[in-house]
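Example 555.
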Amino acid sequence: MTVLKGRGVFGGIAFGVLKAFKRDYFGINSEKIYVSDHQNEIEKFKYAKDLAIKQLDNLYNEALEEVGEEHAMIFQVHRMMIEDIEYANSIISIIINENANAEYAIWLTSRNFERSFEAMESDYMQQRAVDVRDVSKRIVSCINNLSDEHGFSGRRSIIIGADDLTPSEVLELNRKVVKGFVTMLGSENSHTSILARAMGIPCVIGLGEQLRPEFEKCEAIIDSFAGAVYISPDRVTVKRLKKKKELCEQRAEFLNNFKGKEDVTLDGQKIELCANIGNVTDLGGIIESDARGVGLFRSEFIFMGRSDYPTEDEQFKIYKKLAQKLEGKHAIIRTLDVGADKKIDYFNLPYEVNPAIGYRAIRICLDRIAIFKTQIRAILRASAFGNIKILFPMIISLDEVLKIKQILNEVKHNLIQEEIEFDKNIKIGIMIETPAAVMISDILAKEVDFFNIGTNDLIQYTLAVDRQNDKINFLYNPRHIAILRMIKIVCDNAKKNNVRVGICGEIAADETLIETFLAMGIDELSMSSAFILSIRKRVREIDVKTIKDKILKEL
Ligand code: PEP
Ligand code: MG
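Predicted structure in complex with magnesium ion:
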């Protein structure tokens, strides 16, 4: 047995076979491998092609239900492309004539087809280049999965090993088989880690060179409470960790007793415990955890894993579903916070030396107004179907808020003219995640209905500690007195102006700070669903009156 030590991100135990993460074939170079057995390569292609067709049929049916015929059609178009005789003939002839592997033949065919589409006059045909690339990637990934299944004798549980994973790579993990992941790099405060917590995936990061290629296909256990990974674990370790896993499950069972209970302290102070989500597929966790609502919907995640911007209608359908599924509970939708560690290819963001303090979030939206307006229209339209609030990220000035409100009013005005329903009194809020926003929170409070304190960024900007940099991770201290004082300033300014105030950074689930947040009078804490019941338990044990003065004096 080999024990690797890193840092656990989400408390959990996972068992599986270690498998190196394979990046998208087309993202890396498409190596040509000489093969003499043409028949084997052709069979591989045909088998993967059939698998891809089945996947597309399933996707079509799912999309039909979720977003309707018009948008589901794309999967039928992809199916037709895969079945195109010329496409298949090109792949087969490259395999035979160039003695090439199937993956290379697919890549070359894709590139040739893309070029001819791109050279066409019509916009519509030019856009088909993206589709041909997409279907080709799908077939190659089916080939990869075939060989994985051979390597792992079928449907065994898998633990992914990687140098690092991006947020969209985490989103695309196949949760049916992937039980956890381990990485050489990484930071607890990156969006990759935040997503892992939100999705309840046990993971251990920062393993460095300890994670070696020869562990591929070894049995492994992740204990992310202890930040440990056991490779080829011995019988005693397996038994111990099975027991630990059972205890976790028993604790989760016990916490279920807190479902349906109020978020209220012993002396009657109320607070709302809400969930942070990145997609409507996470709504299951909200029901499971009995959250009071969605305190942060990170809308940028619906822009990921695609090759082009989601249209207004596509976004509307997602937001509408969110509103409807919550049955009156509130959902705070944050407008696009893309940039920094959340890169999306089709945004074509420029290279930046300091992306975390660069072109991101509201700065992009106020620059690329069409994207912003499309999103606002979609959110407003969805607000007719439930209790939606809208939140703007990375604010540093009053000027930005006034510009945003002007754009919002223009979009509202257009909807009224078009006689499209929306909530005329929709509540608007801003993220308080920069020191500037904290220091002018008295001024900003006059312009909005609520504040959401984004401590993940507020900590990095206040302490000048990059949240992504694991070298200085030890300096990223959420309990630093400077941070607590900032939260207090925001709270006081919010209260004076009758503005609701919540915290939606990871700190919201820090049990050791719950008393402090209650003493300050925070109205809402929003966190990964997995923590809600244990925080509810803690809230219900606290008598704020008796501790408030002492806590506030120490700040
Ligand atoms: C934050 O900064 O605290 C926050 C909630 O936003 P994100 O983590 O998405 O940057
Ligand atoms: Mg932030």
